[in-house]
Amino acid sequence: MAFSFDRLYVSLKIRMKGAKPPPGPKGWPVVGNAPELANSDGNLIPIFSKWAKQYGDVVQFSILGEKQVVLLSDVIAQELFVKRGSKYSDRGVPWAMAYITREFNPALMPKNDAWRKERKLLHSAVSITTNDKYLGLMEQEANLTLRDLIRSPGDFDSHFKRYAFGVLTRSMLGFRVHSANDPFIVKTDSFINEAMKCFRPDEYPRNVFSILRNLPSWLVPSHAEMVRLQKEAYDNICQLRQRVETLIQKGTAGESIYRQFLENREQYYITDEQAGYTFDSIVGGGTRSPYNALLTFLYLMMEYPEWQEKLQKEVDTVVGPDLPLCFADFPKLPAVRAVVKEGIRYRSIMAELEIPHRLEQDDTYGGYFFPKHTVFHANYAAILMDKDTYPDQQPFNPARWLEPSYPTYKEPLTLHPNCQNFTPFGYGRRACPGYDFSERTLVILVALIAWGCEIRKPIDPETKRPVVVDMKYEPTPNPRPLPFPCDIRPRSVERSRLVELQAEKCEATH
């Protein structure tokens, strides 16, 4: 009966406002579209894309009476999430993820005073001004990673993982990690991989069926896993804080953002626990995203060798046959920045949705009525292939950022392309503030790889032909590429020697 009255109430409000509900798939009584989503194998993009072909750029569905909307247009997403951001900045994350983070992770938590305080700390941690302080260590870590790639190219996955963690732990936390087998990396990476499953309705049915949330664990086995993950998340946060505090007490802590917080707590007006979840979110997003993007870069250079040649030509023109290449060269490397930006776009086309926004009050757009508490999903897979913004409809084309004939082109090329306000980093007040940190982390290493390495498809020993590399991603919001083969070689013996010399200098300055 309550469900019927709720539908009647919404219907009356729609008529009063002269608007109509958005089009969308007709669901089952009571449960709505929950069964179809629960059987998605964790990948909602094919379902949302199918609905878009039927209903357009705004698609509404429901889960147990909760209204949810998929947006497939950047224009609409900009209007709602940016221009009307005061209404659309709350979160609508899956219940399992909210549970394990205790609603303290600033990327996922509801819009409240605690979020505002954590957001302030987060922005200060990854601001452009702050990042400028750590350019030297980024260059060091990138040069060490280039050396590792040349020494053991088959371990590229491990090298990229260590690099992503290495840049972040030194700048944000004040300590070094020397290999992908470092206990901090192993433990953190394992937890992130498990936590990402909390977005999947097939793994955690309580995300979809709220009635299951009050049932005992023996009836819903996944709840015991949620309890374990919540405790593990909290323990990890406490252990990380203790580690940094111990280093500070011993006088061996490097300069870092976490150290700055711990030594000046009174300036931030948040608890150690809240700060812990803030830095945990930085570790999660700031390591996984660059690592994923670097793996995607290798794949794209195998698939589009003409762009590898363009990168090599640009880097050789700027720095010549001698290292070091550094951040001061960035304005002269538009092709490198274009490949990085287009690689980020490519990854989001293949496998990603934005973390949901929740509407805080009734709203209308384009003749559609959205009731309060509606949950919104920005479908990056569709938005980043929008025919008006990306008219060539190509999944990978860095030229769109470099040539005036494309609508995405901007001048001057000493500044553009860059990742500021780029769709894959989110919208409005919920956009990822770490875009600049991620971009710098990627551009410096991509440029060095272009200078020092040749990336090729492996040769099949039987056919003597290049193997077919099929790139696939995990079905999670921040998808990790599944293992794939890649042949990485030094461009010359002399360049390999120079890489070793530069790495020795970097080791000496650690």
Automatic annotation (TrEMBL):
Heme binds at residue 432. The keyword Metal-binding applies. Keywords: Heme, Iron, Metal-binding, Monooxygenase, Oxidoreductase. The keyword Oxidoreductase applies. SUPFAM superfamilies: Cytochrome P450. One of its GO terms (molecular function) is oxidoreductase activity, acting on paired donors, with incorporation or reduction of molecular oxygen. Its cofactor is heme. Pfam families: p450 (PF00067). CDD domains: CYP64-like (cd11065). Belongs to the cytochrome P450 family. This is Cytochrome P450. It comes from Fusarium zealandicum.
